[in-house]
Amino acid sequence: MTSEVTTNYMELFDNALIGIFHSTFDGKFLYANKAFSTILKYSSPEEVILSINDIQNQLFTRDYNRQDILAQMRRDGKLANYEVQYYCKDGSIINALLNMHIKKDMEGNELYIEGFISDISSLKMKEQKLKESEQMLQEVNEELEASLQQLTANEEILRYNYDQIKEKEAALIESEQRWIFALEGSGDGVWDWNLETNSIYRSKQYKTMRGFADKDITNSYEQWLDMIHPEDREWVVDELHKHVNNETPIYIAEYRILRKDGSYMWVHERSKATKRALDGRALRMVGTHRDVTKERNYQDALLLQKKSFECLFDNSIDAIVEFDEEERIIDINTEFVKLFGYTFEEVKGKYINDIIDPFNEMESYLTFAGLEKGDCQFRDTVRYDKHGNPIKVFVKGVPIVINNKTVGGYAIYTDVRFIKEAEDQIRKQKKILESLFKYSPDAIVDIDMNRKIININHTFTELFGYTIDECVGKTVDELIVSEEYIMESQMINNIAFENQKVEVDTVRKHKDNTLIDVCVRGGPTFVEGRIIGYHGIYTDIRARKEAEAKIRYLSYHDKLTGLYNRAFFEEELKRLDTDRQLPLAIIIGDVNGLKLTNDVFGHLTGDKLLAKTADILKKACRKEDIICRWGGDEFAILLPHTDKNIVDKICERIYCLSKESADTPIQIGISLGYAIKYKNESMTELIKEAEERMYRNKLLESKSTRSHIINSLQKSLYERSHETETHCQRMKDLSIALGKSLNLDNDKINELGLLALLHDIGKMAISDSILQKPGKLTLEEWEKMKRHSEIGYRIVETSPELAHISKYILFHHERWDGTGYPKGLKGDEIPLLSRIISVVDVYDVMTNARVYKAPVSHDEALKEIVRCSGTQFDPEVVGKFLELFPLISGN
């Protein structure tokens, strides 16, 4: 029943509309409902639980400390309606209302934290907007109150001003007639516009200047608008309305208006409101109308001339400065600013020569007195910029003459640095070309339009042996083209003389008639788009040809063995797969023991094993047979015109030569398989058949091969070190006796005998200088010697028949107290057979001579073993070992 209630309880939680969670006290979620994951923008409650491992750092914003919140909850018993900010999955922040309490069991032990959250982000936003609205409303109220006070004050001022205006209006009307009379006498037209009635009075002069009679023009505002030029109408009306609405103190406009003859005239119009309403709007305006057509035409012509000059002045590629009679600067153009670095403000009103020669180093200047006599020039001179840097310029002075009087002048500075730099560059380029020609690693010949040699460089002499005197006036073909290449050379020449570039690898001859591999490049020599001759370039490519030959060799040969590689072999398969090569045999061979050799003796020794195997294959095969290294330890042989008898003989020769080899630590062994094609069979199937036979033979031979390898290693060990066969036999006899005294079963006794024979097999990989050293080993030598147990372990691991004793070999130098090697095992952690062989090995080494020590007596050896019991040796094994010998007095 309790389980059912709990299930229903959790289902209510899962489907609740508010977020519900359970969390640990260290900040991990145990449970979250769907609403909780939705609020935090996670796809599911499971994603919340898996994603958030630290609530404080992953969920809370920096303004909130979870530990402080938990402390408050413990203090108050719960956390109620606590506003907090959370990070959502997408990085956004929400405002939430948090309620939490601690869930406890029946005994009052705290279990976890149960919490409820509600997203109040929208409520917080509405609350903020409400605050902002209240603040804005308060500010508006304050402004309205201030405006009301100002309006009250303005009303009193306006009432007073109105009274004053009424008094002045009467005086204005009185003087109006005198004003109109005066304006008519000046030639200006007069108009009076009553905005209240929308009627306009126009004076006689107003109409006459436009060619109209008195009755030709009505007094309407609309007719006046229609006569304004369409391009001017909008802005004129805009200016008029500004004044009507009291936005400007006076109305001024200069625009085009229609004459009676249909042409337009320019008029200058001025007006001012003489009466305004209380709201400031004009009720009456009076203005004048003046014909300014001639002035406008003069102004337009002058403006055009001014703009043209300014355009030329500002956009000139030369730096220009304008100065007056006193040689003071009036204006400078943009190029002057760029060239000399001064702004107009920095040079305005200053003497021009003080600006362009601040160090007084120039001997001749551009002066006003000189300009009065006419233009003057200074070529290839120097002026200085703002920072004192010299600038090479061409200077020209031009006087400004008005009414036959010189009133100023222009100084024009042309920057000739790029010209000088170009000249310098040309000189440098010429020197570079001369150096390139002279010292080029390629032989170069210069040829005229008649195909005769003009010049050769030093490399040409070195490459072909001819001096310049021997070459000039002769053709290239006469000197360096041998008879068999004459046709080719003529074809190359024809291409070059047809104005095409040529590049070809060929052969040319030395003066002593030896042939040289060269790359010939050549073509026409152009100067300013015109052909002035031809050139030939000869690159010595003998080294490249040798490299290419070496690359070709390497691309089809195995670098290690010198045999063909698989790529070449596959090409030969295609070439030899024809009826005339039948019967076609293929032998696949796999070298035995390569991995063991690499692991024990290193890859260099493994490489030596492969190279020696390759030598054996070359000796065993015929000259026409194709031998290749098929893969890592695999070889393949293609034998054309070869039947089964011949293949068997070749395989037998390979086996015999392998057995006779003696230069490798492991005697060479190779498993072979072959297949023969007699008719139209697939080469793929032939290779597959040979491989299957090879693998079958390798499997059948595997046991004897492994035994052969181990015996080979053991024999090599006896030859290279003090580990004699007699020592191993003594070790075996004594170990078996000790094993029996320890009541070992027959299987363990057999393993112990095998271990005694092979325990030091890893010394095969230790250098002779260490094994045969008569004195004490250095620390570095001792570290190398200690590796023999690990090497021995790897050797026997390769043989399934010996793998069961590999761990005993690995640990036979461990010590009872844990200070041995290689793993530092202690006590019973060391296998029993390793502990037995350790005691027997030490006893036999002490009682028999070695290159680095003399033997000790039987008694001395036993005393040393007893002394090391419990530290180096297992005390129980030592006890049983002592029982094998008669008791010695004093022990």
Structure explained in plain terms:
With 891 residues, the protein is an alpha+beta fold. Residues 887-891 have low confidence and may be disordered.
Assembly state (oligomeric)? single chain
Count of alpha and pi helical runs: 34
Task: Determine the structural class based on helices, strands and strand pairing.
Answer: alpha+beta
The tally of beta strands, per DSSP, is 24
Question: What's the arrangement of secondary structure elements?
Answer:
Elements lengths: L1 H13 L4 E5 L5 E4 L1 H6 L5 H7 L3 H4 L7 H11 L2 E9 L5 E12 L5 E10 L1 H66 L2 E6 L4 E4 L1 H5 L12 H7 L2 H15 L6 E8 L5 E13 L5 E10 L1 H23 L3 E6 L4 E4 L1 H7 L3 H4 L4 H5 L11 H5 L3 E9 L5 E13 L2 E11 L1 H23 L3 E5 L5 E4 L1 H7 L3 H4 L4 H5 L5 H12 L4 E8 L5 E13 L2 E11 L1 H15 L9 H11 L7 E8 L2 H8 L1 H18 L5 E4 L4 E6 L4 H17 L9 E8 L5 H38 L4 H17 L4 H13 L9 H4 L7 H7 L2 H10 L8 H5 L21 H16 L10 H10 L7 H9 L8
Antiparallel strand pairs: 1-2, 1-5, 3-4, 4-5, 6-7, 6-10, 8-9, 9-10, 11-12, 11-15, 13-14, 14-15, 16-17, 16-20, 18-19, 19-20, 21-23, 21-24, 22-23
Helix pairs in contact: 22-23, 23-24, 26-27, 26-32, 32-33
